[in-house]
Amino acid sequence: MSKCGKNCFKFTARSETPVMTNYIGEFQCTMDVKGRVMMPAGLYKQFPTELREKFVINRSVFQKCLVLYPMDAWEEIVRDLSKLNRFRKENDDFIRQYTNGASTVELDATNRFLLPKHLAEFAKIKKDIVLTSSLNKIEIWSDKAYKDVMKGYDPDAFAQLAERVMGGNSQQEN
Asked: Which range marks the domain in which residue 143 is found?
């Protein structure tokens, strides 16, 4: 494991090939009238230098938010998608729906990125935004939608979910 920023760690396999960069933090931001969002310094510093310029932004599959992928994370998804058999209609439909609307964004000289209008409309983002880390990607929420989701947080339900997802089914999976 090597450090790639103040709160960022790069996990490496024995061959020292980077496997995944993970990010941490929750950041309050605003979108200006032109649709630009300033990348928070605390988040920007976590990106390895070679991943600080270009990103892909897309709709979330399960939530009414957006997902900002550093290029390495997006390329991993594209590799997985390209393994699907395009002669199966459901695979072709999934690829089309998943990639439809995905946009490349770049940071300008002041570390701002332009949030595509069609994606901002999908996530109901008007001005106040929350950027929150989700392992190797960043979720972009309207402040209201994020507060609504977090308001529904139930510690007991989360503990049960954690046990189901992370607890394993046998003693061998500890």
From this structure: 26-167
